[in-house]
Amino acid sequence: PDTWMSPGSVDAALRGVGGALAGVDMVLAGKAANAFLATRPPGHHAETARTMGFCLFGTVAIAARHAMERHGLSRVAVVDFDVHHGNGTQDLLWSEKRSLFISSHQYPLWPGSGPASDTGAHGNVINLPLDPGTNGAAFRAAYEETVFPALDAFAPELLLISAGFDAHQDDPLAGLRLTEDDFAWVTGRLCDLADTHCGGRVVSCLEGGYDLDALAASTAAHVDVLIARGA
Ligand SMILES: [Zn+2]
Asked: Separation of 121 CA from ligand 1 center, angstroms?
């Protein structure tokens, strides 16, 4: 009921997925240092057999599978900092030992999933629930404590990002208090991890963001870091 379609929706969604796969292909071939996919619709709520939350296909999870099946990677990390739980990505990668899926999200919040006790079939899922009102300092501390050590231990061969910007303080759909600086910071720290483990190979896919000014500024901050780090 929340995922409306028009005659152009399927083509747009297919192009979004195709763009993510092309980004993976280019980065793994060394033709690009990293990639950002400015895709609509987003993808991280689409489950195996269910559209949901404006998402038709699980773009980032499909990109992870592409890296594993077509390129033979055995350790692909997906970090999702959208304010909502990446329930679709979790569903698609729940039993996938070759991936590590990490989602930080306001909790409780729609879609209601994503408690820390959900850890995947093989300990390959990490959920990091954040209290409503969490600000940038607390967000950064949580990432330093939980996300970065887990990525270090996993040592990914490719890092995928579900880059939603609805944790911004101006976003009307949620109640976290991040700013553009926080999104730039987390992007830079994720690039640090990618530099350490996989030659800086990052493919980032746009997810949510519902205050258009905040979305534009936050996306620009994110992409600016990717460009600087990929230069
Ligand atoms: Zn979202």
From this structure: 24
Out of 45, 85, 168, 222, pick the active-site residue: 45
165 CA → ligand 1 middle, Å: 7
CATH of the domain at 193: 3.40.800.20
Taking the C-alpha atoms of residue 4 and residue 7, their distance in angstroms, rounded to an integer, is 10
Range of the domain at 50: 23-230
Please check whether residue 100 lies inside any domain of the structure: yes
Confidence band for 73, pLDDT divided at 50, 70 and 90: very high
Distance CA 37, CA 202 (A): 11
How many domains is the chain built from?
A: 1
Helix (H) or strand (E) holding 196: helix 180-198
Residue 2 domain flag? no
Decide if 45 is catalytic.
yes
pLDDT of the residue at 7: 96
